[in-house]
Design a protein that fits this description.
The longest helix is centred in the first third of the chain and has 45 residues. By secondary structure, the protein is an alpha+beta fold. It contains eleven helices and ten strands. The C terminus is likely disordered. Helix 3 packs antiparallel against helix 4.
Length: 401
């Protein structure tokens, strides 16, 4: 017997409401749960209000700026040569990777360019300077080189992207995010009400655009497809009350990681620079990969990264340094990884209760307690073994098996 969709929807909705009432009305934990829901709702309201104020301010400032920019372009203004030169220097910084190799001279609004420039940047430089307000004439005396190794002033430097449209930039402004969010939500709603390939495509594009506006993360990082940077980055600082030699030795022995990292089940080292990781993910999933040490300065720096083709691309670098009193260690920890499906996979993991940033905070507190007292809160106590500088073969406390 077929059940009408309306009846089925009402049944599922009723079950959901009943489960919610049971969850919040539980005699033992209901009060705490209701208080938690109230606090989260209040926090969401405050966050929404603050976001709305930011968007309104950004739109107002951009509208005001556009108005005065249009006003200045419509009327002729008298600009001194020093101001024009400053504007040209500012414009060069957007399109030229070797600004020091270009000499700018301005006389009564007439600009002359001398020096050397790369062939790939030459047209953009001329076009950008010609549109600088106050420039009446432009004389090009630049020497053009196809390769940077042809002239010493063109070596080094980084490529400048130039003036990119708002929606092609890495970070969107609040106004752009608001507009993109409205457009994405409209596409998503329209796609969900249509059938066929068109509706599915519209819903998919609307979802991506909405997520892009909410997270302010580039699509290639959001989806994990392409891009050099990893999708998720975590940066933490912590002080451990133990000598630098001991703390570094504990980290250097990567077999110790499962002792304080709750999601790491096993780390097996093979040689000085290679290790095999077994990590438990959300919903009981297990990931394994190999990693190599990429930088090692005893008692100062330890860095590693996963080998090419790993399921979960990741990298980490830790800087060790003594505190002011010389008896404690200051750790600067940076870790980055790209889970399957990029930041979308990260968001899905958070829905399942796995927040890597909060998890790292908890793990570092475990590490701090383990080194300082020999006990990790909520875990089996372990004996504390200090590393002796005179025995370099012992890089840290032995792992618990």
């Amino acid at each position: 017997m077929r059940v009408p969709m309306g009846v089925l929807g009402s049944l599922v909705g009723g079950i959901g409401v009943g489960a919610g009432l049971m969850y919040l009305g539980d005699p033992r934990s209901g009060r705490r749960r209701r208080a938690g829901v109230h606090d989260k709702a209040l926090h969401a309201v405050h966050e929404t209000q603050e976001a709305a104020r930011v968007v309104v301010r950004d739109i107002a400032h951009r509208t005001r700026g556009f108005f005065f920019e249009t006003l200045h372009r419509m009327r002729r203004e008298e600009v001194d040569d020093r101001t024009i030169e400053a504007r040209i220097r500012s414009a060069l910084g957007r399109v030229c990777s070797h600004t020091h190799a270009i000499h700018v001279s301005v006389e009564q609004g007439r600009v002359r360019l001398d020096g050397v420039v790369l062939a790939a940047e030459h047209p953009r430089i001329l076009s950008r300077i010609a549109h600088v307000r106050g420039v009446l004439d432009l004389t090009d005396n630049l020497q053009v080189f196809k390769e940077p190794d042809r002239h010493p002033d063109l070596q080094g430097g980084s490529v400048r992207p130039g003036d990119r449209p708002e929606f092609f930039q890495h970070n969107w402004s609040p106004a752009a995010r608001f507009v993109a969010g409205l457009g994405g939500a409209s596409l998503l709603t329209w796609g969900l009400t249509r059938r066929g390939v068109g509706g599915m495509g519209s819903a998919f594009l609307g979802s991506l655009l909405t997520l892009r506006s909410i997270t302010n993360i580039e699509l290639k990082r959001l989806t994990g497809l392409g891009g050099e940077r990893l999708a998720i980055e975590v940066h933490k600082n912590i002080i451990v009350h133990a000598p630098v030699e001991e703390v570094f030795g504990f980290w250097r022995a990567m077999e110790n990681f499962p002792r304080f990292m709750s999601h790491v089940e096993e780390v097996r080292t093979s040689g000085e620079d290679r290790s095999h990781w077994r990590v438990r993910g959300p919903a009981g999933t297990v990931f394994e990969w190999d990693a190599i040490v990429t930088r090692l300065i005893p008692h100062q720096v330890l860095a590693w990264k996963s080998v090419e083709g790993s399921t979960v691309e990741n990298a980490g670098i830790i800087h060790f340094g003594p505190s002011h009193d010389g008896r404690s260690t200051r750790l600067d920890i940076r870790m980055s990884y790209k889970p399957p499906a990029g930041a979308l996979g990260h968001a899905f993991a958070r829905l399942l209760g796995a927040d890597p940033r909060k998890q790292m905070d908890d793990d570092l507190m475990q590490l701090k307690s383990l080194i300082e007292t020999g006990k990790a809160p909520g875990r089996e106590s372990v004996s504390r073994e200090r590393t002796s500088p005179s025995t370099p073969e012992r890089r840290g406390p032995r792992p618990v098996h």
